[in-house]
Amino acid sequence: MKLKDGHSNRRTFLRRGLWGGLILSTFGGGLLAWPTRSTNITTKLKTLNTRTFSVLCAIAARVVPPYAQATSKQIAERVDALLSMTSPETLADINRLLILFDNAFFGLFFHGHFGAFSYLSAETQDRVLESWRDSHLLLRRSGYQALRKLCLAAHYGDPLSWNDIDYSGPRSTGGIFYNDSQWGTKAWRVKQIKESQK
């Protein structure tokens, strides 16, 4: 997924497969959808609606490491903020994907569980996520990866998570800015030769 990218051939990762558009239009609209387990929202959402935010919370609870400092709700809030930097088309695709993820009829067809993803047990949710990850359908594989990477980016983008992976943060440049705009040019090569001869 490209941020701020309006080109249709890059933004429509949900429609790459032959069946992508059909599935989104048939099931994404809520055909035979089970109600989503709602999450108490205390902040004003920027991009997601109440339903898709609740689905994202359920997904974040399973894909973000269990030792994370942030709650799944906080992760979903950060993803909501990240999505404000995407194109309207990409945002629409993400919302359709989240609705599809929680669709009860879709879940019954693929997983044999009649019920919204947000209502399933943690163990069953893990199996559903694995089936999306390993699916032979590009729509499901790319959709899973998009949601997973959004959640992980929201998690590891927070400095409080860095201790968990022994990351001390970006090194300080001491206030020095390195300008590499001339790198590889003739003037740059001449300068490198002169410096090597000193």
Low-confidence stretches: 1-19, 27-35
State Rg: 21 Å
Number of folding domains? 1
Approximately how much beta-strand content do the residues carry? Answer: under 5%
Helices, by number, come to: 9
According to DSSP, the number of beta strands is: 0
In helices, the fraction of residues equals 40-55%
Query: How would you name the oligomeric state of the polypeptide chains in this document?
Result: single chain
What would your notes on this structure say?
The chain is an all-alpha fold and 198 residues long. It has one domain. Helices cover 52% and strands 0% of the residues. It is built from nine helices and no strands. α3 crosses α4 (72-83) and α3 (50-63) crosses α8 (138-156). The protein is elongated, with a radius of gyration of 21 Å. The termini are far apart.
